[in-house]
Design brief:
Blueprint: H1 23-43, E1 50-53, H2 59-70, E2 74-78, H3 85-91, E3 95-97, H4 105-111, E4 117-122, H5 129-135, E5 136-144, H6 158-163, E6 166-169, H7 175-186, E7 194-199, H8 203-210, E8 218-222
Helix pairs in contact: 1-2, 1-7, 4-5
């Protein structure tokens, strides 16, 4: 007689990792790659649309740029990390803007000939939030993903009312997102970026490495 499987024993949040994908790559798929993938889905964009990605040279941002390019979007990458422009362009960014030069919405408006972006993937949070809102065109969507400096931001209600823009939250990848990502990685369409690998015993060194400005990609601790 077959024994019924209790629902709480079913691995509902686990997916099969093909042999073609190494464990170190699999370790960063859900967060570093999947977070951006899910945010782009939440943005409801079509090929040819313009998307702005803030904190673009970080682990989530870099993969979001790569995915946005894969989906046929025009990508404006916002990054304060010096020397990352070529890396971001190689990942698929059409334009790279340094926000330390001032509010970046003017540059976005120039690039889009005054129309503004169709969406912003907001990874930095409060440091760039107001510029991101101002970068949106009518009917645009700001997808809030990260908040590196926790705290409130001021938003004039007239802006979303008059421009009919949306502020959408996006927390993490879904299991369905991860399955699609694994297929993209297995087919070589997405190439996850690992900045450095450390042994478990080197965890302190790994944290110190992360503290260095401009780490591109994710750090993986190897068992």
């Amino acid at each position: 007689m077959a024994t019924a499987v209790s629902w709480w024993r079913v691995p509902r949040n686990a997916v099969h990792l093909p042999d073609a994908i190494d464990f170190d790559v699999g370790a960063i798929l859900s967060c570093a790659v999947g977070t951006g993938y899910h945010a782009l889905q939440r943005a409801r964009l079509l090929a040819g649309d313009t998307v702005v990605v803030t904190a673009a040279s970080g682990g989530v941002g870099l993969h979001t740029v790569e995915l946005a390019h894969l989906f046929g979007l025009r990508v404006i990458a916002i990054s304060t990390s010096p020397g990352r422009a070529e890396l971001l362009k190689a990942a698929g960014a059409d334009f790279v803007v340094d926000p330390s030069d001032g509010p970046f919405q003017k540059v976005v408006r120039e690039i889009t000939k005054g129309d503004g972006a169709d969406a912003v993937i907001e990874i930095a949070g409060s440091p760039t939030f107001l510029s991101s809102i101002a970068s949106l065109g009518a009917g645009g969507r700001l997808v809030a993903v990260g908040n590196v400096q926790p705290g409130p931001v001021q938003l004039n209600p007239a802006v979303p009312i008059l421009k009919e823009i949306e502020v959408v939250g996006s927390g993490h990848a879904l299991v369905s997102d991860l399955r699609r990502l694994i297929s993209l990685v297995e087919r070589g369409l997405v190439q996850p970026k690992i900045a450095q690998r450390f042994e478990i015993a080197q965890a302190a060194q790994a944290h110190a490495f992360l503290g260095q400005r401009g780490v591109a990609g994710r750090v993986v601790l190897m068992h």
